[in-house]
Write a structure and sequence with these properties.
Two copies of one chain form a homodimer. The first copy, chain A, is an alpha+beta fold. The first copy, chain A, has a domain at about 10-125 and about 240-255: Thiolase/Chalcone synthase (Peroxisomal Thiolase, Chain A, domain 1), CATH 3.40.47.10. Chain A contains 14 helices and twelve strands. In chain A, the strands form two sheets. In chain A, strands 1, 2, 3, 4, 7, 8, 9, 10, 11 and 12 form a ten-stranded mixed beta sheet that branches. In chain A, helix 4 (about 95-105) packs across helix 14 and helix 7 (about 170-185) crosses helix 11 (about 315-325). The radius of gyration of chain A is 20 Å and the shape is globular. At the A-B interface, helix 3, strand 3, helix 4, strand 8 and helix 10 of A face helix 3, strand 3, helix 4, strand 8 and helix 10 of B.
């Protein structure tokens, strides 16, 4: 792919982000409205005419019995007659919605665009329903019919990685420990407690007594195996929530805000649907291509990145993604996390927001929440979890089980 | 909205179109593949590297238990690692997918793009299931909860129109008669028989004896009322099918084909979700805005249009749309159809393909099938239904019940 390097630049001028978690009192449209209105307010565009609205959501039909939700949103927040569409790309629907909004502006078809993503799932009380719906992104004959779900792929990948690179499951746990810790610094995060806090609370309740967090995490009673070797604390929760961005032609960005952030690179690539057909399970080829595209478009390299948000639906993914985006050598990602290199203040801070593990994972919201976090980090507005001096950030938003990955690179200007 | 008039031009260089109808032997992915591979072949791009693939589909989760189908398609037709997304905008998902593909190229992010839309519904044998799923685009509290479905809105609009403009239901029937006749000239159409043929066949089977097609259409036994005053023959069928376009940067179009067609205008607008809140039910405000945008972008007016494809899910819609796009005065659309002005060879031929009524309406495919038909018309390849000398065409693709409408203007160059 050859980019047109003189294309119009696109800026983020404001953001919105609901609390992620179990939000009983809100339906999907409420959540999308809340994040959108916050982004409009934040970008000083509440009275402006929007050209387009893009909604990232994976399964509003299956989970919420609605279609055409982008049109409903535009009416509800009084942005009529703005054009609007929903973008679906599995758990990467949010990243794809950002790309759609970016292209709307870069093409010259739009000047002012709202991008919002969300999902509402915690109201569903049929056991296994959510996992089975999410599994509709797997291959129906080669995978799904045999009972394979996303968590089982997470388990298989973990096993393959640990064996291939002689890594330890404790290092994967270290990623969860870090992300829970970061989550305690993020008021919007689904989980506001560190794993140590969970342990102390369990001790207090008389559920057991453990000498270390690792021992706690190995206890089947408090941390059961979900997909061997992955346990509950290695896997992201089911969350409700929404996040939003207001994008505009960068030339006009300073009219709305003093410190816009530029989307300077976007990459997206696909890989085989059937995971068995990939040359190497522990390598995310689509991410290598997508992140290379983003770096090339932005004329940056991994060394230029100050902070990143990765798609740790399963904690193994953060390790593998940190390698395939160029931060660590293959097989070194989990060890790097164990050594603290990905903590806030480390070599390359990963998921200061808490990531999918602790911020939560309302599918369609995630790709947008990642960029919202980078927006705050780049403007020095990330509070207690601020990465000092961050000027450049990148994301990995993961669709399918790695068969459609986006990488978005943002910069302060 | 101010367009960037120096944006990159986008050409259509090849198309694909499956038969529409009850296609028992194909699943949704098969249909998308068939249309896509035909478009690749038609555009001489089977060996080329594609940057992006956009899939328009309304309810693949609800109807086919699949998500992430755009990624699955890219793998199945060997276009890895092309970026891919699904676009959902109710029954206008196809039109929105074209717009997404257009913006991918106009922005400079892509050079070669596949746009494909499809839906597979006829395998569903639960009575009312499809209508209830399609009704998820209506407003859940103000409309759907009261049992309102899309056909009932079609009936209400028909009644309002007939009363307001002193029009006759027979004129609405004339639209169905014309579209069925056009369908007999389209080998891909769901229905290959004129209404007169249906009548003759019914007479032969001893079901009755009628002096005219109008008398036949008023017979409750052969043409029952679905949503008063609309009867079965005033409403599009439930169809399976897919249609595809290959788009490229217009500067390179002649490398692939001798007679590319240019997408010179795209408009899209939203209206209130709740129909009751509109000032006037018989006026499609979103279409007025969307078509004005398309005309302005292409520097054309309704007088420049040689052929058009409208969204006649209910035959009343063709009449109203032909007015709101500027071909006839308000209240004159149905009469114009009655007078033959919209026939092939008439003042402004509408739906030479047979429209949704006769070509069929596989939701996500429709917006793309409309542009495929115009592509053939503009290249003089429409066979027996050719509109002589057609150089410019326009579409109306209708999402929700008029709360999200696209209009796409194409030209021969």
């Amino acid at each position: 792919m050859e980019f047109l390097f003189n294309m119009r630049k696109v800026a983020i001028i404001g953001v919105g982000h609901t609390k992620f978690g179990v939000l009983k009192e809100k339906d999907l449209l409420d959540l999308l409205c809340d994040a959108s209105l916050e982004a409009l307010e934040d970008s000083n565009t509440t009275e402006k005419e929007f050209d387009s609205v893009y909604v990232g959501a994976m399964c509003p039909g299956e989970f919420n019995h609605v279609s055409g939700i982008s049109s409903a949103l535009v009416d509800r927040i009084s942005l009529l007659p703005a054009a609007s569409d929903r973008i679906e790309n599995g758990p990467a629907s949010g990243g794809s919605a950002i790309k759609a909004g970016f292209q709307a502006i870069a093409s010259g078809m739009s000047e002012l665009v709202l991008v919002v993503g969300g999902e509402k799932m915690t109201h569903i009380d049929i056991p296994g329903f959510i996992t089975s719906i999410v599994a509709t992104i797997t291959h129906s004959e080669a995978e799904r019919i045999h009972g394979v779900s996303l968590p089982s792929f997470g388990g298989l990948l973990t096993r393959a990685y640990l064996e291939k690179y002689n890594a330890k499951l404790e290092w994967i746990s270290d990623i969860a420990i870090k992300n829970h810790k970061n989550g305690t610094l993020n008021p919007n995060a689904h989980f506001q407690r560190s794993i140590e806090d969970f342990m102390k609370s369990a001790i207090k309740k008389g559920k057991g007594d453990w000498q270390s967090v690792y021992e706690f995490l190995e206890d089947d009673k408090v941390n059961p195996i979900i997909a061997d070797p992955l346990r509950l604390f290695h896997i992201c929760p089911i969350s409700d929530g929404a996040a939003a961005l207001v994008l505009c032609n960068a030339e006009t960005a300073k009219r709305y805000c003093d410190t816009p952030v530029i989307i300077s690179g976007i990459g997206q690539a696909t890989d085989t649907h059937i995971i068995y057909e990939r040359e190497e399970m522990t390598e995310l080829k689509a991410l290598k291509i997508a992140s290379s595209q983003a770096y090339r478009m932005a004329k940056k390299s991994p060394d230029d990145i100050d902070v990143c948000e990765l798609h740790d639906a399963f904690e193994i993914l953060e390790a593998v993604q940190s390698e395939d985006m160029g931060f660590f050598e293959k097989g070194e990602g989990a060890k790097a996390a164990h050594e603290g290199l990905t903590e806030i203040g480390g070599k390359i801070p990963v998921n200061p927001s808490g990531g999918l593990k602790a911020r939560g994972h309302p599918l369609g919201a995630t790709g947008i929440a990642q960029v919202v976090e980078l927006f705050w980090q780049l403007r020095g507005e990330a509070g207690k979890r601020q990465v000092e001096g961050a000027e450049t950030g990148i994301t990995c938003n993961f669709g399918g089980f790695g068969n459609n990955i986006l990488s978005i690179l943002v910069e302060r200007i």
